[in-house]
């Protein structure tokens, strides 16, 4: 919370910097999955043809299973580095973690852009790309965790700006793909322009990070070391979840905690009765309180990552070949998902339903499992087992709308409800646990996608 003697954020430069840093942390994942048609074209030997970037080459018979592997190797590093988080924070300086990660990500994305112009056979290209995906996402996990730690010293508004940048990364990647496809240049040049875009984004992130020590506002807050570095991700994510204060609900779990913990009058009144601080919270006790919410979070991401993008990227338009067929998947899969996901997350700003004591939440989460067969029965050509029951484009678009909105809303809802189920001094542990289960759900979904694709 900002203090009265704090300097002003001149021209909102610090806010803009954290917004761009948030954008930079999720650009790699989104640019790789949005470019699945390009990678499939390269692996199918279509390098240099006019259909490489826009044409969907995915099919259940794909020998490389590219969209499955790119999802799995993007999410496993998140789970791994969530477990290694405390070790990294203690052993590696913050500046090295952030700046080093940004430089490595920039280097590897530059390599991806260079490979657009290099004629490489499919097997080495697949191996190089998968290695890049693994290392890029490993350093993205380190970068994101380190930036969340820095945000712990900043006013809550800057957490919101950071997360807003992350939320727009997918939309940015989808729009970059559409612009590359619509540019009218040959496929190679179009793909090169597409992969240069995140390189520029990462460069801007580096400039933003290097500029922070030169801004008085940033120096004022970043000089203060947060007392709790871990569990910060939950609290910062909850900043986007602002229920209506008119109904008596605080704007966010953090502000509820501040009301409980930092009110001087209440502290004075409670001091004679509670002179001692609460003891160290037990992980087991906290887990007992939030296990159902954590399980819901795991299931939401398991369902989402099991079909997106592994199955949804294979869906093609049922119309005759033409412009709409070429733009169908980038628009109806990636752009639509990211826009509706952001909308779903924003809905928690107006209401939180069901509440933390309701048993309706697990039911809603379980109902999302229905999206798995629905997407698998859409128009995916060259299938060998399951029939196509929903061939029209309208079916896929409708399913994607509901799928994306429910994903964004339920993720935000579970991340918001978890800290409300524990005592104020237990919220750090709850945040750490929810962050772990978030990564676990992503990894489970990515692993399950292999089985679902084999069933087509």
From TrEMBL:
Catalytically driven reaction(s): guanine(out) = guanine(in); thymidine(in) = thymidine(out); cytidine(in) = cytidine(out); uridine(out) = uridine(in)
GO CC annotations on file: apical plasma membrane; basolateral plasma membrane
Record organism: Phocoena sinus
A GO BP annotation: thymine transport
Molecular-function GO term, any one: neurotransmitter transmembrane transporter activity
Keyword Phosphoprotein in annotation: yes
TM segment ranges: 12-33, 69-89, 96-116, 128-149, 161-185, 191-212, 290-315, 327-348, 360-382, 394-417, 429-452
InterPro entries named in the record: ENT1/ENT2, Eqnu_transpt, MFS_trans_sf
Keywords (A to Z) from UniProt: Cell membrane, Glycoprotein, Membrane, Phosphoprotein, Transmembrane, Transmembrane helix, Transport
PANTHER family on file: EQUILIBRATIVE NUCLEOSIDE TRANSPORTER (PTHR10332), EQUILIBRATIVE NUCLEOSIDE TRANSPORTER 2 (PTHR10332:SF8)
Main subcellular localisation: membrane
Pfam family, one: Nucleoside_tran
UniProt topology in membrane: Multi-pass membrane protein
Purpose: Bidirectional uniporter involved in the facilitative transport of nucleosides and nucleobases, and contributes to maintaining their cellular homeostasis. Functions as a Na(+)-independent, passive transporter. Involved in the transport of nucleosides such as inosine, adenosine, uridine, thymidine, cytidine and guanosine. Also able to transport purine nucleobases (hypoxanthine, adenine, guanine) and pyrimidine nucleobases (thymine, uracil). Involved in nucleoside transport at basolateral membrane of kidney cells, allowing liver absorption of nucleoside metabolites.
Protein name: Equilibrative nucleoside transporter 2
Compartment(s): Apical cell membrane; Basolateral cell membrane
Family: Belongs to the SLC29A/ENT transporter (TC 2.A.57) family.
Primary gene name: SLC29A2
């Amino acid at each position: 919370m900002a203090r009265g003697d704090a300097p002003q954020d001149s021209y909102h430069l610090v806010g803009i910097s954290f917004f761009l840093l948030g954008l930079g942390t999720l650009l790699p994942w989104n640019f790789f999955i949005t470019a699945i048609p390009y990678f499939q074209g390269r692996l199918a030997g279509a390098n240099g043809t006019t259909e490489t970037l826009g044409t969907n080459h995915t099919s259940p018979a794909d020998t490389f299973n590219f969209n499955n592997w790119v999802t799995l190797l993007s999410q496993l590093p998140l789970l791994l580095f969530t477990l290694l988080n405390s070790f990294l924070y203690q052993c590696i300086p913050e500046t090295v973690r952030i700046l080093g990660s940004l430089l490595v990500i920039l280097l590897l994305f530059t390599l991806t852009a260079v490979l657009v112009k290099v004629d490489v056979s499919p097997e080495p290209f697949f191996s190089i790309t998968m290695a890049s995906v693994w290392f890029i996402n490993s350093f993205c996990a380190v970068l994101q965790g380190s930036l969340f730690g820095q945000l712990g010293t900043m006013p809550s508004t800057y957490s919101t700006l950071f997360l807003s940048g992350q939320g727009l990364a997918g939309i940015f990647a989808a729009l970059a793909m559409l612009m590359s496809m619509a540019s009218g240049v040959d496929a190679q040049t179009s793909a090169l322009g597409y992969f240069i875009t995140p390189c520029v984004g990462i460069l801007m992130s580096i400039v933003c990070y290097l500029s922070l020590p030169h801004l008085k506002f940033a120096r004022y807050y970043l000089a203060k070391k947060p007392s709790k570095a871990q569990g910060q991700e939950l609290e910062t994510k909850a900043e986007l979840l602002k229920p209506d204060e008119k109904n008596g609900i605080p704007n966010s779990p953090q502000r509820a905690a501040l009301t409980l913990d930092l009110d001087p009058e209440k502290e004075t009144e409670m001091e004679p009765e509670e002179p001692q601080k609460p003891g160290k919270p037990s992980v087991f006790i906290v887990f007992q309180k939030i296990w159902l919410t954590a399980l819901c979070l795991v299931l939401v991401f398991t369902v989402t990552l099991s079909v997106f993008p592994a199955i949804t990227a294979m869906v093609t338009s049922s119309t005759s070949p033409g412009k709409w067929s070429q733009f169908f998947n980038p628009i109806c899969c990636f752009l639509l998902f990211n826009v509706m996901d952001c909308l779903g997350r924003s809905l928690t700003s107006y209401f939180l339903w069901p509440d933390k004591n309701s048993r309706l939440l697990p039911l809603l989460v379980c109902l999302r499992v229905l999206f798995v067969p629905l997407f698998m029965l859409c128009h995916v050509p060259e299938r060998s087992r399951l029939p196509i029951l929903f061939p029209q484009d309208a079916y896929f678009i409708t399913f994607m709308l509901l799928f994306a909105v429910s994903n964004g809303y339920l993720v935000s809802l579970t991340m918001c409800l978890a800290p409300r189920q524990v005592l104020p001094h237990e919220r750090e542990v709850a945040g750490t646990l929810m962050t772990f289960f978030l990564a676990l759900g992503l990894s489970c979904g990515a692993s399950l996608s292999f089985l679902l694709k084999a069933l087509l």
